[in-house]
Automatic annotation (TrEMBL):
Belongs to the glycosyl hydrolase 20 family. It holds the Pfam family Glyco_hydro_20. Its EC number is 3.2.1.52. This is beta-N-acetylhexosaminidase.
Amino acid sequence: MRHTIRPDTAECPEQFVFNGVSWNVGWLQRLLTRLSVNPSMVVSSGDEEAWQATAELDSSLDEAFALTVDARGAHLSYRSVAGFHQGQAVLFQYLMQWICIKTLPACEVRDTPEYDYRGIHLDVARHFFSADDIMAWWDVLALFQYNVFHWHLTDDDGWRIDSQTYPELTQIGAWRGPEEVLPPQMGSGHLRYGGSYSPDQVTELVERLAGLGVMVVPEMDLPGHSRALLKSLPDLVEDDDHSLYRSVQHYHDNVINPAYGPTMDYLETLIKEWCALFPGELFHLGCDEVPAGAWSESPSARQASEQGHGTPLTQLVENVKQLLAAEGKTLAGWEEIAEGQPAPETWVYSWQGVKAGQAAAEKGHPVVMTPAQHCYLDLAVTDAIDDPGYWWAGTVDMRQVYEYQPTAGLSAE
């Protein structure tokens, strides 16, 4: 970021005007209204004396945006829609300082994000959040110029998107409780717990986030982490499969079998339903934590291997890649997707550390670095016995998160 402080100053106005602009400023309005503070904001006005903010597209900019703020107003030039949203976030940060200090130096800010992918992951399968809660959360996250929402929508403990073809997925798989098919987990207690999103709710959320320059990446976590799916659709269980395994979560029945006859037909239907809801490029398939021994006694897996089709995981990765390609989308998965021999264009998310991501990058894969040691906010902040949070990857405080450099250890190539 290039931030130039000028000698003149700007006084905080009682009201500022977005005059004659057609771009989306609803986000700024929502934030200022929620704070109930001056300056208030109106869109368009005939008052030429008002402090005014203007914006224009300038494809010749070297940076993503250029923002000038002085006593007369603010002017934002942006190279693309993404640059507009980034500049809007910086303008709001400036306004918040104004509210506190009342007088600030005039300035010019020019900036381009270092990374094209700046994501936040939310697991709503284990802990459900309403669509309204998620949108309110993103109103704040947009201030920090995040532009990808990785939405973890399925897991052992819940399936969160209503299916028109298989309504039992959320009639059964979206709920936990003593009298439900899925028992209480993750502190959900003795009451019925859960929820799901209708296609209309998903569409509305995706569109509103697009208005903030945010792409939604849905995650359908397969073939492991699939207990909610299997309990909702028992036809996906191969009767003659006597494989013995235990997942990290201590389940012995949470892995689907892509080699089993009906499995890919069901998945094709579900994936196409999701592709219709999510216009973004990426579709995340999970592929993490498949326990040893899964499929070891499966007749269909054995037959597929004898016919040269590889493991069930390689079959799943290849079949879903082809399905997504037909929908104009690209496959993504956690670092274990590498065991499924993915194509070079497959995105790899490195989560247990950095080595898997570095290895994938060296093979030419696009990589998202999300090592738990720096990025998992559900880990404890300290090692004190009364500090809430998990411990399996150590402790994570905000300094570790803020100072993390995803490309450390990689060559320029």
